[in-house]
From TrEMBL:
<protein>
    <submittedName>
        <fullName>XRE family transcriptional regulator</fullName>
    </submittedName>
</protein>
<dbReference type="InterPro" id="IPR010982">
    <property type="entry name" value="Lambda_DNA-bd_dom_sf"/>
</dbReference>
<dbReference type="InterPro" id="IPR001387">
    <property type="entry name" value="Cro/C1-type_HTH"/>
</dbReference>
<dbReference type="Pfam" id="PF19319">
    <property type="entry name" value="DUF5919"/>
</dbReference>
<dbReference type="InterPro" id="IPR045697">
    <property type="entry name" value="DUF5919"/>
</dbReference>
<feature type="domain" description="DUF5919">
    <location>
        <begin position="121"/>
        <end position="243"/>
    </location>
</feature>
Length: 251
């Protein structure tokens, strides 16, 4: 029996019939996924199940993930998505939930996080209270660069408005120690989101908003690999950044 799948279904209060309907499979097939040890669904079904249950593929079917592990220079690339909007919400939830040491959100507005993840502020407050370092890098809503990018995007919900929404949400959890926010312009065309040793990277394209940008899911496997290089980039931006809240520690 696949105990991990059975537990995930129980925790999500999902029946075999409901899971079958959500991932486009026969209910008998779903039953075999649960009862037959070593039974591994097709990739599209695995991804649909992970999305439905909010669980990571490596937890439900570790053998499938191990089989797909690469050993070359690109082995830190876990997945590639043509659009950030195509990156499963379950992946974001799983990475945020499992992070223990660090959550860094270096998106220019980070607006979509509040829009797409229910009770996101509560989750951040809980993580910080548990000792996880939570950091946000934002663009300055009043900067010339922000105004220039707004002209490039040419959308009704402007860049500065989206930044101010994020600032307002962060203000609500400002009193929680361990949550820090800085302004930076060095990530205007590259968003990096770090969850311990996992990372989501989005290079932004001219005249495109963030959800239309290609997206990489990286996992750290080596020193000075892709993960470390993006992490170093963010650390330098953080060092150069300016505190959003007056009187906050610059350390």
């Amino acid at each position: 029996m696949n105990e991990a799948l059975r537990r995930a279904m129980l925790q999500a209060h999902t029946t075999a019939r409901q899971l079958a309907e959500s991932c486009g499979a026969d209910i008998k097939t779903v039953g075999r996924w649960v009862t037959e040890t070593g039974r591994v669904p097709r990739a599209r079904h695995r991804w649909a199940v992970c999305e439905a249950l909010g669980e990571d593929e490596a937890v439900l079917w570790p053998a499938a993930v191990k089989k797909a592990i690469k050993v070359g220079p690109d082995r830190e690339v876990v997945s590639v998505y043509p659009y950030r909007s195509g990156c499963p919400a379950s992946l974001w939830r799983s990475l945020i939930t499992k992070a223990e040491r660090e959550l860094t959100f270096a998106g220019y507005t980070n607006y979509f996080l509040w829009l797409e993840h229910a009770r996101f502020g509560t989750a951040l407050r809980r993580k910080a209270a548990q000792g996880c370092r939570v950091r946000f890098l934002l663009g300055d809503p009043d900067s010339d660069l922000t105004r220039s990018r707004e002209q490039d995007e040419d959308v009704a919900l402007t860049l500065s408005t989206r930044i101010r929404v994020t600032l307002a949400e962060l203000e609500k959890i400002r009193s929680q120690p361990g949550i820090d926010v800085r302004y930076s312009e060095g990530h205007a065309y590259l968003s990096v989101f770090r969850f311990d040793d996992d990372m989501i990277v989005t290079p932004l394209l001219t005249h495109r908003v963030g959800h239309d940008a290609p997206t990489l899911h990286l996992r750290r496997y080596q020193d000075d690999g892709m993960f470390d290089r993006f992490a170093s980039h963010v650390e330098e931006l953080w060092r150069r950044g300016s505190p959003v809240w007056e009187g906050e520690d610059d350390g």
